[in-house]
Amino acid sequence: MRPTVLIVEDSDSVRQVYASFLYNHGYEPLLAGDGREALEALSTRKPDLLLLDLYLPDMFGLDILEEVVRRFNEGSPYLPAVIVDTACQDQIGERMRSLSGDIGVRIEQVLGDDISVEYDLMKIVAAINRKGSPDQLQDLVGLVQKTIDLPQWKMVREVKALITGLDDSPEDARYRRQLESFIHDFLFMHIKFRTLAEERLTQGDEGAFFAYRTLVTRKMPSLCWHSRDTAEYAVRIGRLMGLGSDDIEILRYAGYFHDIGQLPAREFYSMSDVLPEDDRRRKFLPFHPQAGRILLEALGVDRALLVPVESHHANYDGTGYPNGYSRDGIPLYGAIRVAEMMDSAKRRRQDAISVERSDFERPTIEHVMAELGKYRGILFNPQAADAAIAYLQKAA
Hints:
Layout: E1 4-8, H1 12-23, E2 28-32, H2 35-44, E3 49-53, H3 61-73, E4 81-85, H4 89-103, E5 106-109, E6 123-126, H5 134-149, H6 151-164, H7 170-198, H8 204-219, H9 222-240, H10 245-257, H11 266-269, H12 287-299, H13 306-310, H14 335-349, H15 362-374, H16 382-395
Parallel strand pairs: 1-2, 1-3, 3-4
Antiparallel strand pairs: 5-6
Helix pairs in contact: 1-7, 2-3, 3-4, 6-7, 7-12, 9-10, 9-14, 9-16, 14-15, 15-16
């Protein structure tokens, strides 16, 4: 029988991420979104372990612990092991000492103090179960720590760092809501993609693309033709460079998938062209290639697609985003970078309706060729830039 874990957390997305991860590692998750649901589950289901967020909409988490301890002290034989999510040491100090007096609660710090309060575990509070399950508890502690180290959580922490720097102005309040919406949508999308992959609903890249196209059509139709045209241009560039059929297929799918990370962040891209270059909101834009790689990995696509997608805004000279990609470290000659620029420039200059097919017009071809020549060897791989220029010369 699987050991049961009651996850008490008011955020749906965080709760589901923990549930999915723990289930995959042999635990049976039970879910509660507030204190009332938590106390009911503790009375009726009697979980082996309790993962408890202290900040709940209807009560402070320590009130739940105090109720559990009160029942135990009044003769109930049941006391779960407890992991508490908190960074508020001052608030819990005296109350925790009171709780630990009769039953031997120990407090063990497992992570540094710079972790986000809402999304990461700061303290382990292990209430010693008289039935004894220290190994089980430590196993769960290890799994929770692994969860925190997953790429999606690291990115969430980075976005949370942007939130902490905002003030109470109306503009920053709107931006805060958008950032929080991104975190919520991104985590839920990750869970959905993991479910698709685990249930084998995506058979290879074709099935994964079908799932992606369906989602794009519903949530962000402006990406449909941009994705398809970027894929087409990347394939044409690859063929002119003499790449083999396997690399051409990677370019095709990477072109389709390259902007999947925009889906949970769609509100920001409507603002990207009007914000000044030094505006701090532009700090958010570099997250979408990283988010795309994480979501594709969850969707179960060929791993050969991950780096081309993540590096599609990396520049040949090492600038761009994310950091760490330059020159030969950008796969497939950075053809996705060049192809994406070509289609984006076409749509901006021709005021193209992004949900429809759009062909190059001659003035746009001349403009894009000039840009490719100007930034050849700076932003763009020289071989990919030359191949793109050759393609555009034939299209003119």
